[in-house]
Task: structure prediction
Amino acid sequence: MTTTSPTKTAPTLLPAGQPRTEGTGRSRFKLGAGQQLKGGPLTYAALVIVGLGSLFPLYWTLVAASHDQQRVLDTPPPLVPGGRLWSNLQSAWEQAHLGKAIVNSIIVSGCITAATLFFCTLAGYAFAKMRFRGRGALMTAVIATLTIPPQLSVVPLFMMMSDIGWGGKLESVIFPTLVGAFGVFFMRQYLLEALPYELIEAAKVDGASNIRIVWNVVLPVARPAMMVLGMLTFVQAWNDFFWPFLALNQENPTIQVALGQLSASYTPDQSIVMAGALISTLPLLLVFVIFGKQIVGGIMAGAVKG
Amino acid sequence: MATTTPTRGAYSPPPGGSGAASNGSDRRSWRSRLWRFDDLASPYAYIAPFFLIFGAFGLYPLLYTGWIALHRVEMTSLSQSEWVGWDNFAKILQDSEFWTAVANTFVIGVISTVPQLLVALGLAHLLNYKLRASTFWRTVILTPYATSVATAALVFALVFRADGGLLNWALHFVGFSNIDWGNGEWTSKIAISVIVIWRWTGYNALIYLAAMQAVPTDLYEAASIDGATRWQQFRKVTIPSLRPTILFTIVISTIGSMQLFGEPLLLQGGTLGSIGGNEHQYETLSIYLFNYGWKLGHLGPAAAVAWAMLVLLLLIALINWIVSRFVRKSAA
Result:
């Protein structure tokens, strides 16, 4: 990730931990400004505790997935990984259709992410930089949709899906989440500051049509934000549980649905359930390890909405 | 800050625009009309996908829910419906299990949201210090956010296991005897709240951190000149500046707690999960809806539950609005 506009909406792009005013010179001798102070040992101690709390359940997933059930349910419980990780992963893979579930999850999350990126960038651009009647009201409408929980519409959604022949199919979980309000809002906030009007005007003077401007001017500028939005969307789509659990069945699940059903079965083997949990989490953890900085930046950028 | 649009510079008409059209050839006026149409229609075309998708899979089902709530629709015969009027509503309102679910949703919502946001606020304050490896800390506290509800609930289900679970084992060192987390009235709610708190605290902390970094430093400088201590600065400068953000996170967390589903479903798993425990001690409204519609197969009452949730949400929004007005007034 090379450049983003160094504005307030992208605070993490500043050097790590540096308050925004550093370097104005003026604030340096006014240490009372609070924000300048370095974290002391107590700060680090507190962070270490919180950090351990954040990571321990994930670590213990690995531990539980690498013992047999007997050992997992033993007292005292195991605290270090054992040697059965591979065989547990294998049984989880075979018993719960996890192979198919993973493929399904990749398809679902991939489609949702691609569509979200495309449509949200278009809409975000329109809301940020184009003039049209009803823009303010429509933007308010977009944000208002954020407050509607999916629970309110699952019953008819389920009926509609079976009506049009999508019952139990991946389409039924892909289509309702193709374009999210958050994505529209996120791209709008970004483009509002990152895309100068001069660029658009210049392209217009050159005789570019609107769709050409989108392609040649907006998309290159939007790319860093699109990357972040893409990761956030993928994480969300991958982890989505409620509607997929209602819409899909055992034969054709996403990975989360498969996990839910694995644990809902009679006397599930806990170490195999944990192995399944591990399989479902690993891809995302990998994304986090590689792109953690961008994801953190994206969440913080999306948060400063004033 | 950025919710208002910046003033637009002189809006230059597209080349061959209206001025040229009046005396130009047919070809040119045709072209200019095309340009004008392009400018007029494009924005609507760009935002159309959102509204089409939302209309088809959001708004329409929402209204349709109201229709189903007044009918008898069974899972076994989805295409048949029979008018029953307000029977479905009467049915759920007279069901004590429904009121248990309302109370549980409310209680779990409070005991998961309040500590979560307080801890997040403190955590954001820590992260706002000048730190070594600040990105590392931020990423670490965000990892639970990358974990799915299903995974989190399943791991914590093991941690909270009654006999010899990890937590009970750890607690026996400090003198607690075995706690039956899942079956207890309060302990089960606490267990579910812990899962929620674990997953969302880091996320909220980052949102607060972003807001803290946007607070103008002048305010702190002015405060320190007036001799305010750091704690006073935090209380009198940071917190008031964060008020809109805090309100935002409260709204989001409230909506989120109305939706709690995976955590209660998987805490004990199996059939216990879909009725929210043997005595419904941790049954939330989403579980109740799921049980009515998908386990028992009665979609009419399930739709009525959805409408009840909508009413509750509006009520919460109203309370929120009144409280925030009150807070603003008393602060002024």
